[in-house]
Hints:
Radius of gyration: 15 Å
CATH superfamily: Hypothetical protein, similar to alpha- acetolactate decarboxylase, domain 2
Number of domains: 1
Structural class: mainly beta
Bound molecules: zinc ion
CATH class: Alpha Beta
CATH architecture: 2-Layer Sandwich
Amino acid sequence: MKSFEFNVQRFLLGRLERGDDVLDGLTDFCRCNGVDVGHIEGLGAIERGGVGYYDHEGRVYHEIRFDEGMEIASLVGNISRKDGEIFLHCHVTLSDSEGRCFGGHLLDGNVAVACEFTVAVLEGAAPERTHDEDTGLALW
Length: 140
Ligand code: ZN
């Protein structure tokens, strides 16, 4: 087990514009606001999008795509660094018109109808993600 300790430096609220890519928009927001390390939560709706499922045996992400409007029932993630760049790792729960939920890793291609979010900006140096041999993932 690894642990890191930070104090909260700032707490930000933001909103994406209609048509924004959720992951790109959140990453841009963090970059523009000088967020190096933090925690992010959000909610809203998308026109279309998708989630990823990591097959840990095959070490590959499977994409599950949705071509319909869905609620972002919940989005949660963290902000750190990978390859020297800001990196958001977010998971999302999307719900359809009947309330059925699908969840997983937030992929590119989730087109926002609306997305409101909060970012807890932490004080200090961001952990850097590196390749983890056991899982095949980039971890702290
Ligand atoms: Zn993930």
